[in-house]
Amino acid sequence: MASSAELHQRRSAAVARGVSSMIPSYVSTAGGGTMTDVDGREWIDFAAGIAVTNVGNAAPKVVEAVKAQVERFTHTCFMIAPYEQYVAVCEQLAELTPGDFEKRSALFNSGAEAVENAVKIARHATGRPAVVVFDHAYHGRTNLTMALTAKVMPYKQGFGPFAGEIYRVPMSYPLRDGRGGADAAAYAIGQIEKTVGASNVAAVLIEPIQGEGGFVVPAEGFLPALAAWSKAAGAVFIADEIQTGFCRTGEWFASSHEGVEPDLITTAKGIAGGLPLAAVTGRAEIMDSVHPGGLGGTYGGNPIACAAALASIETMRELDLAAAARHIESVARPRLEALAAKHPAIGEVRGRGAMLAVEVVIPGEDSAAGPAPDPVLTGAVAKAAHELGLLLLTCGTYGNVIRLLPPLIISDDELDRGLSLLEQAFSSI
Ligand code: PLZ
Questions:
Q1: Are residues 220 and 200 in the same domain?
Q2: pLDDT (tens digit per residue) in 108-128
Q3: Which residues of 52-65 are buried (b: 16+ CB within 10 A; e: fewer)?
Q4: Is the CB of 105 within 6 Å of ligand 1?
Q5: Number of domains comprising the chain
Q6: What is the similarity comment for this entry (predicted)?
Q7: Ligand 1 contact via 359 beta carbon (within 6 Å)
Q8: Same domain, residue pair 276 and 325
C-alpha cells in the first residue's frame, strides 16, 4: 500500500488545491469509532465524517444492505422507474420527524441540494421571494446555499455574485449576545419586520443548533418564538437538521428539544451511514404545492443510498442511538467542564448529546461581542490532537470552537481515550 507521504505527492499533482484535507494521513480502513491510516496508525474518531457515520463507519447492517442492493440493481432513476426503497425511506422520514401531521418527502444527494430544494418548495408554496437566515449559519456551498451561509472564508470568498432575496438576522448566541431566547427572538423578528416585511417572507431557515457556525445552541425560547412568528406570518419554518439530525443531539431531531414542529426539515449526513443521501420532509400541503416534475434529479434517492438509509435507521432504532448520544454527553460534558475549570481559555462548554463543543477565548479580553475569540490556540490544540491520533474538528465564525462529533456507537473505552487525548492536547499547548 502506498504511504500517506506518497499519496500526498500524487494528490498534489492531481487533486485541485481548493479541496483540502484536515490531516495529512490517508485512510486505509475505518470501523466503529476508529480509523486506521495507510501508515498503520490508529485514530480515535471524534469527527464521524462531519456527523455522518452516526451508526459508525462500515456499520454491519449498512454494509450488508449495500451489498445486497448493489447486486439487485444500482440505478434506474426514480423519475424513470421507481422502486420501493425510495418510498420506504420517505415513510421512515414521515414517522421519525417531529409533528403528527400528514407529510411528504423528496430525496436528493447532498445537504446543500436538500436546502436548495426546501427553499424552492417554500417559495413555490407561498408565492413569496424572501428567505430569512441567521448570523453564523451554514447551509452549503452551492450558489444559493453560499448565499445562505454566513462565513466568507473559506466558503464564499471570490465565488460571487450570490443569489438574491436572502436576508440575514441576528442569531441567539448566549455567550455573545447576553439575551434570553424571547428577547433574542423579538430582536430578530423586529429586524425581519422592518427590513424584509412579514408578507414577503417565504421561509425562515435555521439550524436548531448551528453546526459549522460554532455549535451555537440558541437560548431557550428562541426557536419556538421564530416558529410561531413564521406561522402567523404565513412563512414556511424550515429546520436545517443536516448536522443535528438522526439521534446526534440525543433526540431523533434537535427541534424536539423544545417541542418545535418545523413545516419542513432538511436532512442528510447521518441519514445513510456514509452514503450520499439527503431529504426534504414536511407538511403535505406545502410539499405537494409543487407540480409533478418540479422536483428531482438523476441520482436523488439512489437505491443503494436508500438501502443504506433503511439499514442505518434500523440500527439507530435497535441500538437506541438517541440514548447513546445522551450517554456520550453524560460522560463527555463533565470531562469538558473539568477541562474548562483547568484552562481559562475555555470560555464555554455547550451542545447537546453527542454534539458538544468548547469555545476558546482569550481570558480577560473582550471583543465587541463577548469574550475575544482565540482561533490560534484553537488551531494549535486541534493540531496537537491530530498528532496524538485524535480526529478532532474545529468550527465557528471566528474559528475558535473545538467540536466533538463522535460516532454514536463509540465504545466507552474509545470515548475515554479520545477525551484523554483532547485533555493532553490542551495541556501540551
Ligand atoms: N446544512 C447544517 O452542516 C454540511 C460542511 C463541510 P452538504 N456541513 C459540513 C464543508 O466544509 O463543506 C451542512 C450542514 C448544514 C447544510 C450542509 C451542507 O451539506 O452535504 O455538505 O452539501
A1: yes
A2: 999 999 999 999 999 999 999
A3: bbbbbbebebbeeb
A4: no
A5: 2
A6: Belongs to the class-III pyridoxal-phosphate-dependent aminotransferase family.
A7: no
A8: no
